[in-house]
Amino acid sequence: MTTDADAAVDAVATPHPVPVRLTAALDPRLSRWLWLVKWLLALPHYVVLLFLRAAFLVLSAVALFAILITGRYPRPIFDFTTGVLRWSWRVAYYAYGALGTDRHRPFTLADVPDYPAHWDVTCPDRLSRGLVLVKWWLLAVPHYLILGFLLSGVRVPWASGGLIGTLVLFAGIALLFTGRYPRGLFDLVIGLNRWVLRVAAYATLLTDVYPPFRLDQGGQEPEAQS
């Protein structure tokens, strides 16, 4: 008989398809100068997300106990948690996590099909009761060390600082002087954000599939690439 402890080991050691999907399409008509004031234009979203993240933390604790008792992530909480991360990614994509679009950011937890940035995670049928006690503070530590470098000095996720913030600054300077976002730089920035959100999904208990130590660059997930 397989125990929860065995399942926890298998979830880390056995390769699985990554259930977390991040996609992004670079806007071909980016403004040369708008990125200089996006900190102001995105301010309403930062205010709303401040309150959403407070609820996010409380409900994540509720989900932890629900998983521990039932082995399932309550679907309403799962949808809310996923929605907050999705909203955060859209704002980051517009602002200083990528500068990938100048389009208005919708105020919604739901996916917006015609928006150029998307994030989603497959809701699992069941989750390991044993794994829920260790993955967010112990098993994810190697990734935290990497993300500590990628996001060092960040108060609001994906806003500034670290390697991602530096690369996005270079992209903004390129836009200012050339009117173009270097494609290779865009692919790298998206790959780094993809890594961040894979770890976020794991640490917030949305999946038992351990995030790969792999930088998948570009706007499409690997399985969608030719």
Core attributes:
226 residues; mainly alpha; 2 strands; globular
Short characterization:
InterPro entries: DUF4389. The chain has 226 residues and is mainly α. Helix content is 51%, strand content 4%.
Described by the principal axes of the CA atoms, the overall outline is globular
Percent range for β-strand residues: under 5%
Total separate domains? 1
Radius of gyration: 18 Å
Strand elements, count: 2
Q: Which whole number gives the mean pLDDT?
A: 88
| Helix proportion | 40-55%
First and last CA, distance: 41 Å
Number of helices: 8
How would you sum up the major sheet? 2 strands, antiparallel
InterPro entries: DUF4389
Pfam families: DUF4389
Transmembrane segments: 43-69, 136-152, 158-177
Keywords: Membrane, Transmembrane, Transmembrane helix
Describe the protein in words.
The chain crosses the membrane at residues 43-69, 136-152, 158-177. It comes from Streptomyces polyasparticus. Keywords: Membrane, Transmembrane, Transmembrane helix. The structure is a single chain. By secondary structure, the protein is mostly helical. It has one domain (31-109, 119-220). It is 51% helix and 4% strand. The protein contains 8 helices and 2 strands. The protein has helices spanning 4-13, 38-41, 43-70, 75-94, 135-139, 141-150, 162-178, 183-203; strands spanning 20-24, 117-121. Strands 1-2 form a two-stranded antiparallel ribbon. Helix 3 (43-70) packs antiparallel against helix 4 and helix 7 runs antiparallel to helix 8. The longest helix is centred in the first third of the chain and has 28 residues, at 43-70. The protein is globular. The chain starts with a helix and ends in a 23-residue tail after the last helix.
